[in-house]
Design brief:
2 domains, alpha+beta, about 120 residues, about 35% helix, 5 strands
Length: about 120
């Protein structure tokens, strides 16, 4: 009788560990595969990076005006915002673009992420 109880308890414990391991693997796959979506690199806990976009080398456009707009993401499920260069130029009255740069901030990405576009021009 005692052998039967220990046999079943071992099986039950093994199932719990197996289920936990499967869930852990799925969480790691989602976490690590979603980190390669934006920007050149990310930290797992906190990220705050800027990286260059485009600039206008044909025209001598001064960067006298600037504007910024961002998109926000929560839990990899909800993303809101408009960070388009055209929308920023329209909003801040920029007629000719000089530079377009990007910034990404993330806290435990993909739990929270902020992607911003910064535009300068005249």
């Amino acid at each position: 009788m005692i052998a039967m109880i220990s046999k079943y308890s071992f099986y039950f414990g093994e199932r719990i560990i197996h289920k936990f391991f499967n869930k852990l693997v799925i969480v790691f796959i989602i976490f690590f595969l979603s980190n390669c979506a934006i920007g050149p690199n990310h930290g797992a806990i906190y990220t705050d990076i800027r990286y260059p976009g485009e600039f206008n080398i044909d025209n001598q456009v001064l960067g006298s005006k600037s504007g910024q707009a961002c998109q926000y993401m929560l839990f990899g499920l909800i993303t809101v915002g408009d960070s388009s260069a055209g929308g920023i130029a329209r909003k801040f009255g920029i007629l000719r673009l000089a530079t377009i740069d990007y910034r990404f901030r993330g806290i435990f990405y993909p739990v929270y992420g902020q992607f911003c576009t910064e535009v300068t021009g005249e």
